[in-house]
Specification:
With 337 residues, the protein is of the alpha/beta class. The protein contains ten helices and eleven strands. The chain has one domain: Zn peptidases (Aminopeptidase, 3-Layer(aba) Sandwich), CATH 3.40.630.
Amino acid sequence: MKRQILVLLAIAVSSCVSVSVNTRGDQGANGTSGTNASTEAAKTANNDVSESKEKDVAEILTFLASDELKGRDSGSEGLEKAAAYIEDIFRRNNVQPYFSTYKDTLSNFKKTTYNVVGVVPGNDPVLKDEYIVIGAHYDHIGFGKAVGGDSIANGANDNAAGTTAVVELAKYFGNTKSNKRSLVFALFSAEEKGLLGSKHLAKKLKAENFNLYAMVNFEMIGVPMRGKKYLAYITGYNKSNMASKFNEYAGKNLIGYLPTAKQYQLFMRSDNYPFHNEFKVPSQTICTFDFTNFDYYHHVDDEADKLDFAHMTKMINEMIPVLEKMSNASTKEIVYN
């Protein structure tokens, strides 16, 4: 989430289109889709479509939050490696580029940096023209205040965790093709610079008369919430019926209301917000960071070993049937209140 939350944390935390669109995407400066290292790292993910596996979740997140990527700052070589890694997984799991390539260069950032955007077309001749965007930002802040000689801010929870969820969901739908509506899987750059990646994509899609049903964003899902009867909360809880419909689709109390999220206006602080502004359709973020369960926001100790991979895997697997039912409903059941 946004850097503005740092001030809030100091107070709150005591311990702490269709597929035929041919708009030009871009490759890296060298004309390639990434480094050999990131490609080799991506090759180990398997294509088992039954559900997300904890070992795959751990593998993806561990690479994205590794020192090799140097904190994934926007416009950096590290973020370029992350983009290539995601591209390779998309390619091997039948997720098509939404544009002419997976990479789409931001128009609103001074350095060259990319969103990574894939699509799984819907299998229904009518509903396929409606889209659901499933997103997360994959950038982080690069470097932070050194602790014990370590200054790389790896951004495991923020937001390699959300990125891993989107990649795993893309793998599932890319292989099952079980969605009637088309699903766009978007990994945003420059969120940490002011939601720039999502602003760029939302504006670009709006200009193309993109038929957006809803946007579901994943942010900081790496650790479980404390003392809650639900697995995650949703920002802008009272703005739509998304939470109640998700719980109906899940057959359980999966998504709840966190008062702190409203208090700190988290609805406006993540990549759902530009889609809300441009399209005026339900656009909300799923999160498990509750201001008490993680002390390392924008800290160099936001490392992979601080996260709960079993929890993440459960979160992803609980969301698979939810998104499947959302994409297959005969009408747009999720609406703003």
